[in-house]
Amino acid sequence: MLQSLHVKNLALMEETEVEFGRGLNILTGETGAGKSLLIGSVTLALGGKFEKDMLRRGAESALVELVFSNGDERVQGKLLQLELEPEEDGSVIISRKMQVGKSVYKINGETVTARQVKELAELLIDIHGQHEHQSLLNKKKHMEILDAYCGEEFLEAAGAVEAAYKECREIRRALEEEAMDEDTKNREQALAEFELQEIEEAKLTPGEDEELEKRYRLMVNGKRIIENLTESYQYTGSDFEGGAGISLSRALRALGGVSSLDERLEALQGQLSEIDSLLADYNRDLAEYMADMEFDSGDFAAVEERLNQLNRLKDKYGQTLEAVIAYGKERARFLEKISDYDVYMQQLEEKLSVSREKLEAACEVLSGIRRKNAEALTKQLKEALVHLNFLTVEFEIAVRRASGITAKGWDDVEFLISTNPGEACRPLGQVASGGELSRVMLAIKTVLAGRDSIDTLIFDEIDTGISGRTAWRVSEQLDTVAHAHQVLCITHLPQIAAMADRHFVIEKSSSSDSTITDIRVLGEEESLGELARLLGSDSLTEAALSNAREMRVQAGAHKEKLL
Asked: What span, in angstroms and rounded, lies between the C-alpha atoms of 261 and 281?
């Protein structure tokens, strides 16, 4: 349930907070007061498009915060799936801070993406906008509605169709890509044979290029390395006057003449002996390294040639030797395939035929589920339409086989209606007016709500194009839905407002330098006054209030029937 809505610095709303209740929450107000803006703020919090002119004049940012209470197991499970921490009391807090060019979404205090908010919102709230009923003019919407009604059985069958369709599409794509005439096949075969031969003759070893590059660098820099090592050997050896080795030997002899006179001198002599030994080891290792550094022009040319060969192969077939080897294996597989090309293509054709049969079988199952549920949905929608003051109505959901197959199956779904006796059912767009489309959509929402676990439903001016007795029927239908769901409804009709369990008024006030929209809950007497205004009364006369009280009594009688 949507427990509260907090809006700050959004259009005409400076800062507004409202707490909604269970049942039917009605929002009314003068034209232009900002009724739809309030519901629009909910849409914004859930990822709707934010325009810079929505920001209140003078403000740097706007904020919308929604608090949902008593989230069910599906909601808590979705939070865990999104790696978000559920609140201890089960509530869900969604907020969005909006600045020009930037938005920050949060769920329970943790920063999230718009996609994560939308995923969670699908389990929390269903918003019916002012013009959503126009979507009924599109047959694609008819299939979406029927599929939403079908339930768990449909989901499994739809998944099977989608998987089979994907498999069939992949095989068909392979057939199209592999199709070659004789000349093309010969050219491709010759190229593959040449490439494979070139790679195989190179006898590649993973990592060989890296080792050769190390050797090559040493060879290229060999002269400079030898010169520096020779100089280091002279400075540290015993073969050249002034070398460290000669100096250490002289120092040891000098210290040896007096070391026996004091224990501490013996210790110093030991330290110096270790240094002399380490230096001798260094010189020996250095001499061995220098011996190995002898330059061989033939070896250098062989390394250089091999590196050039490997680099050419990498330029042609991959960035690394591993990639070149993998390409060679792929070429070998291609040659194996093309050597028996006709058999291979025949196998693909057979796979496509089997896959097509599998897809058609899955489509038949899915279509059967749609047809079965179409009958049940037709019956429920017709009953709902009669209750919404369609005095003589025929309604059909036609499930026909389309000319092709898509990932959704082979069905073409269309809603047909007749509102006059003796007339055949025709597509909604050819028969229904705007007001009738609005009532059809309400009937659909009502039926789906009975099968849907979403707790909160919002209707923004569902009463478009209706009045009188029909308006009463719509209000009764909304109240029926509100017994199982929380309903928020913006309306301008007194018949619907009279049915409110909680009545809010949206008001606009102006001063010399600003205009503010605010919302407040009405008590019983204030609600009667608002009903009188909706009835067209300019002043709160006793007659107007009496009419308002009669409407409340009539609404109360309907509510008692549902208890």
From this structure: 30
Count of CA atoms in the C-beta half-sphere (13 A) of 432: 28
pLDDT digits (tens, 9 = 90+) for 341-375: 777 778 888 899 999 999 999 999 999 999 999 99
Instruction: For 57-72, give the DSSP string.
Output: TT-S-EEEEEEE-S--
pLDDT tens digits, one per residue of 447-498? 887 676 788 888 887 777 777 888 888 888 889 888 888 999 988 889 999 9
Strand extents, DSSP E, 165-235:
none
Which residue is listed with tokens 């050896």?
237
**Residue type for position 133:** H
3-state SS record for 203-214: CCCCCHHHHHHH
Condensed to tens digits (0 to 9), the pLDDT of residues 171-213 reads 888 887 777 666 776 777 788 888 888 888 888 888 888 888 8
Contact between 2 and 125 under an 8 Å Cβ cutoff? The reply is yes
CA–centroid distance for 130 within its chain? 26
Number of neighbours of residue 393 by Cβ within 10 angstroms: 20
Is 417 in contact with 393 (CB distance < 8 Å)?
Answer: yes
Rounded Cα–Cα distance for residues 366 and 360 (Å)? 10
Sign of the alpha-carbon dihedral angle for 341, 346, 351, 353: positive
Cα gap 419→416, rounded to integer Å: 10
pTM above 0.85, yes or no: no
